[in-house]
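Listing S7. Sequence submitted for prediction.
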Amino acid sequence: MSDVLIVDDSPDDRALFRTILRRAGFAVHEAATGGAAPALIREARPHVVVLDVNLPDTTGHDVCRALRADPLTAGLPVLMLTAFDNDRDVLAGLEAGADDYVAKDAAPEVFLARVRRLVRYRQMATTSVLNEQLAQIGRLLAGIVHEIRGPLSVVRGNAELLRMRLPADDASQPFLDPILRNCQLLQARLEHLMAAVRVGPSAREALDVGPLVREAADLFLKGVDPRGGRVALATELVAGLPPVLADAGRLMQVVLNLLANAHEAIVATRAGGRIAVTTAPARDEAGSWVVVEVCDDGPGIPEAYLARIFEPFFTTKEKGSGYGLYLASEILREHGGRLTAANLDGGGARFTMWLPQAPAAAAAGPSH
């Protein structure tokens, strides 16, 4: 469902446009003055603003210019309303930054077509920006991984040579095994990081979710700044779960993102809290699943935002990017699964990863 904000001082016009939009499946928000628009935009996060030229406290052109000057709303599509096809109003609106215009007496089908076109434009624009940001992150990460791999190979190679040259009963031998184990672990984690931003089809194989979740939790705890609050992380991982067919790197990215969101939700309101991660098998009418749940005891998700938190660039955080949960949901969709969110009865939020169990042929292969 897409959200539309109507800014118009005429109750009759608002009622007409509200009826047209709601019948077409849009969620509608309304403002009678230009001064009320900014606060509503921050609260409702609409996909499109329908803006009347003539308002009691200002003009639609001034409101449009203010939206374009604010980084938060600079890319928000604006459909300007004119009383009739007035070339002067149309030109002034376009110069102020409006994306399109429509006459108030236009046919409902024309009005709806203009709104739908701007919604699609918004979706394409945000996806394009997201892809470019991911490409930049990928290039940066590839450079960092390349710089780490070289020294890491030297450390591992020299440790292996030492183990080969030293007698088996040498007192230094016990110190070499931890070095080699951690070199191998670091190399695996570098591959996971690269897989998280790799462009192209994911490299899926049958894997056991439990060890991956445990590794993600370990990585997360090591990266948490203790000054940000004391948040306990508990894992309850069911042994013997059926394997899933997945890209380990991308799946780890989802788990890390959910853990980070849970941590931020808690420390934003108090100094301490608890995150619980569980795994379990599940079955419904759509098939057999392995589910991973990340629950926190933070403030939860405002009910008005529950249906929109997986939209690209939609965020309730003052400094949030708004694409972390979108990416997580897209990764699970590519895997044939889904990501869902709900509020807990006792407070806090629950995010559930639904991963389809691997087919029997794939599950028979090696798992990780």
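Caption to Listing S7: primary sequence and predicted structure tokens for the chain studied. The longest strand covers residues 272-284. Residues 197 and 266 are 27 Å apart (CA to CA).
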